[in-house]
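Could you join me in thinking about how sequence relates to backbone shape in a protein? We need material for that, and I hope you will provide a protein of your own picking. Label the sequence line and the structure token line clearly, so we can match residues to local backbone shapes. Would you write everything just below, so we can both look at the same thing?
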Amino acid sequence: MTTEVRVPTLGESVTEATVATWFKKPGDAVAVDEMLCELETDKVTVEVPSPVAGVLADIVAKEGDTVGVDALLANVAPAGEAGAEQVEERPSAKAAEAPASSGGEEVKVMVPTLGESVSEATVATWFKKVGDTVAADEMLCELETDKVSVEVPAPASGTLTAILAEEGATVQAGGQLAVLGGAGAVAAPADAPAAAPAAAPAADGKDVEDAPAAKKAMAEAGLNRDQVTGSGKDGRIMKHDVSAALAAAKSAPAAAAPSAAPRAPVAAEDAAREERVKMTRLRQTIAKRLKDAQNTAAMLTTYNEVDMTEVMALRSQYKDLFEKKHGVRLGFMSFFTKACVHALKEVPEVNAEIDGTDVVYKNFVHMGIAAGTPQGLVVPVLRDVDQKSFAEIEKEINEKGKRARDGKLSMAEMQGGTFTISNGGVYGSLMSSPILNPPQSGILGMHKIQDRPMAINGKVEIRPMMYLALSYDHRIVDGKGAVTFLVRVKEALEDPRRLLMDL
């Protein structure tokens, strides 16, 4: 007898969700409370566990389907009884398969689990071509999501008989990528879609794109493309090529790159020195969101400056004791976070958002902290910072910053922010105008602390000064409110005792 898996309660006022990712496919064994799939709503991401142990008999709601509360998602059968009840596999796994070789059993190469709330990826690079012999765990291809790059190893040794997802194709989690035949298997038949392109010569005029992991490794090692010899298709540089170049500790001749056709008005000799690199999914998402912010909001920026003397003195006085007690260093971000929370209470429209013809005021503060990573800019969100201490804020900033750099943040951890802080000062920026993070109405830009001569009580003194910038949506925030907000942040930082007394 099968057990039904249904959509759980999604939260207050949420009546439907989208099926984002299935972690299991029909026929897979599942344990009690093992995660079967993930649902996305406009507020949260919900994981659906298996209510019983057994075998996933069928999937009723496919990835991308919209389902209501208590809708049927799938059925789980007792172990050994699911075979007759399984329905067809998902479309991503139904691509044409190459004939099984006479030398061994056919093995499917599937898209691995891509991470929490990530349901699809782009095939970036194939390291092997049809007909190549591969060993178990040897890297076959690399996938790109909007967060991380994922390398796909061979599940078994054999021969790559068919590639079902070409470079540039978008694949779903659990979809099929390729087919492996036993040792000595012949190449895929002529009508297999990947056979001809895989063998195309490097001189066909195509631009060469190195593997994303290789580009990252070269950047970290300080190598340029001319110092590494590519072993991939069309001279692509792979991650192991960079490792080999570092081990050899010498320059290697560049792999032959295809010549790009000159594009007017670029001269031919200049075109030969250009390099074309496809934008990553993360960079495409960043570009779209930032341009949408400019097109939608009536953005305006107001500036001020803050004397950091008192904050620096307080931090210097207590940083050792703070780290000894709380196990985390006392930085400037917790002071700025607290100062912004203090100012948002007085100017709540900076913490609000526009929804159609309504203004939605937030009686809480979910603070986004912009962080630069090797993959691009991300904004992890610290929830309910208005209720947290300095130590709790510093610990969460430290933990989320590390996970952001490692590409391990979930989508849920980057959603729901009500206000954002961006610290360009860590890169040496003296002044900038930050762009809003939609649908938020305000973002504070921090900058470099620089000693400057200031007039203090009629005398010139050298003080550590920082320029502050508040970009805001003028549709909802008036100039008076924006200036008041920035002045309150300035006052709280120049006299931190105000934060304790709520002044």
Observations:
- Residues 282-501 form a domain with the Chloramphenicol Acetyltransferase fold (CATH 3.30.559.10).
- The radius of gyration is 27 Å.
- DSSP finds ten helices and 27 strands in the chain.
- The longest helix spans residues 309-326.
